[in-house]
């Protein structure tokens, strides 16, 4: 069935011209003006009809239009750059009766715990009818997703009421690394931490030429679905710290790269005075070949 249409609105390109909105580099503003790509991103995580959606960084609203065309039950927009408010207010009016809540602020400071008006769903049940979508600013995408992974592991913030799926864009290489399996040379700290708590799917590549202005790199649309049971049943801080230490020198073998047994990276995992012995015991217990490299 074709998606319902919004009332006639000026095109996003016209709005950018009308309000003289030039992209601000510090806010990683690269607009997606291609309706097909916006629609693909909006639909990537699942059916949005009657769902509760939060879009991060709506900018002038092209992805927002694609989300609204799917007829969600509610939409929350978190946008730092207030120059986009007139365009977003226009969309809010056109979206009636769908309630659109506009949060003018920094997503890194935004408490997402009250975003989704959904009944709590036990974590083991299917995902809730809530979604986070965003053509994220490249400059904050990694710290933002790491923060959200921590929230997922603690079932806090947006994940307070159950498992919420996300469809997000990243710089292509970051998306590839996030989805890289063990043994893949792209495997890194982010792959381990993301896959410890989420099912990570690299969905499609978005060529740089689709953005205005064109960035120097391509982008990736990635879908993250929180796992019912984490792959690594440990606290987020532990998983993150061990992964960070392991990948400190990613091209060297675990032992030589670590400058074993003097390696600061490995040693800081343990307190003195048993540091060296505990680190040796770890390798033995994990049945790890000391000549393998972190990505293996
Ligand atoms: N969604 C629009 C699109 O696809 O055309 C714009 C995407 S642009 C890559 C990123 C958007 O995120 C911009 O509108 C920018 O102002 C906004 N942004 C940047 N940093 C932000 C932050 N810390 N909190 C909220 N929004 C932010």
What is the alpha-carbon Rg in Å? 21 Å
Oligomeric state of the chains in view: single chain
Share of residues in strands: 15-25%
What is the CATH C level class of the largest domain, in words? Alpha Beta
Helix content: 25-40%
Order of helices and strands: HEHEHEHEEHEHHEEEHHHH
CATH third-tier fold name of the largest domain: Rossmann fold
* Individual helix count: 11
- Ions and ligands: S-adenosylmethionine
Q: pLDDT average, as an integer?
A: 88
Structural class, by secondary structure, is alpha/beta
Biggest sheet record: 7 strands, mixed
Q: Give the tally of β-strands.
A: 9
CATH 2nd-level architecture of the largest domain? 3-Layer(aba) Sandwich
* Order of the strands making up the biggest sheet: 4-3-2-5-6-9-7
In CATH, the homologous superfamily of the largest domain goes by the name Vaccinia Virus protein VP39
- Low-confidence parts: 257-264
Shape: elongated
Distance between the termini: 46 Å
Number of domains: 2
